Amino acid sequence: MAEETERRFLAPIQIRYDGLDAQAHQIDMAMLGESLQGAARLIGVAAHIAATAEYTNRAPSMQFRVLTAAPAGGSVTVAAILHFAVAVSPIVLQLPPPEIVEKIVNYILSSLSRRPQNERELELIGELVQANRELTQANTQLALEGMGAVREVALAAIQAVKEAAQDQRPAARHFAAPVGETAAVAAIGNPETAFIVDAIAKEAINFEPAEEILDASQFRLKLTELDIKTGTGKAEIHGFDATKRYQCKIVDPIVFIPQNAYSSAFNDQRWIDVTAKPHFQDGDLSKLTILDTPRIQSAA
After folding, report:
1. What average pLDDT is seen over the chain?
2. Which pLDDT score, from 0 to 100, does residue 56 have?
3. What is the CATH number of the domain that holds 286?
4. Does the residue 300 lie in any domain?
5. Taking the CA of residue 135 as centre, how many other CA atoms within 13 Å lie in the half-sphere pointing to its CB?
6. Which partner from 88, 101, 173, 226 sits 20 to 30 angstroms from 28, CA to CA?
7. Tens digits of per-residue pLDDT, 85-103?
8. Does 300 score more than 50 pLDDT?
């Protein structure tokens, strides 16, 4: 147990703030709290992708918690430490190397800052996640399934990072909150390689594209996530980018009734026809507000 604890605390991820108040080793406490909430979400999402090659935005589904140790000297630096959210077998899952987590976090921040993306960097993330999975599961069936399964892990990781880069703007906004107010810049990870969130990057992260909501029309979709308490979820939409999962908000009240048309289609993973208002940002479909669906639909 002592060896396991030592391994967990071996290589923390730096969260660093420089300039303005931080230059004197001080920082606004309220803004620091907000920023660390955003950093914890970004690091937790990235660690989950690094270990599983899957993206989730729901904290209860994440495999890791993000803890912290005492602040270090220098500017204002906080150490983020990964810890398993629940007890797991090391054969099934291991803590991902911090460098993979940092690369994923910094790709997300760079993407949301509207900086030109290096596709080779994204491929490298996929390769690193793949190598980590091979190492973790060297004695399991995955290692026996050949390069096809391994390559599938890398592609899944790349897709998960892309989804995270679309979804995690709120967390990035929280993380960037101190920039320009109580710190000049902020960064997560190795200072020599981390993406620096400065005032220009913060402005891009905070940018909210104008939304256009069109009249209701018919869509065919397959729900891939569904929260029956809120009516929110994600879906693959027929006729649109098959690699993307679009945000959905179901305002049809039957979604809250047990065994409704939406939950049944979700459980069966079949296509369902709906009436919905599409939301567009920068000319791209971003979300559906679902108004209705036929109460009885045969399996497609």
Report:
1. 84
2. 84
3. 2.40.50
4. no
5. 12
6. 101
7. 765 555 556 778 899 999 9
8. no
The predicted pLDDT at position 151 comes to 67
Other beta carbons within 10 angstroms of residue 95's beta carbon come to 23
Question: 126 is written with which tokens?
Answer: 């996929």
Q: In sequence order, what are the residues at sequence separation of 6 or more whose Cβ sits closer than 8 angstroms to the Cβ of residue 188? A: 13, 14, 15, 16, 39, 42, 43, 80, 102, 105, 106, 109, 175, 194, 195
Give the Cα separation of 165 and 151 in Å (integer): 21
* Count of domains observed in the chain: 2
- Are 156 and 220 members of one domain? no
Specify whether 172 is located in the same domain as 268: no
- Regarding whether 217 and 161 lie in a shared domain, the answer is no
Residues 36, 163, single domain; the answer is yes
- Domain housing 270: 211-292
For the stretch 211-238, pLDDT in tens is 889 999 999 999 999 998 899 999 999 9
Residues 143, 222 share a domain: no
**One domain for residues 250 and 273:** yes
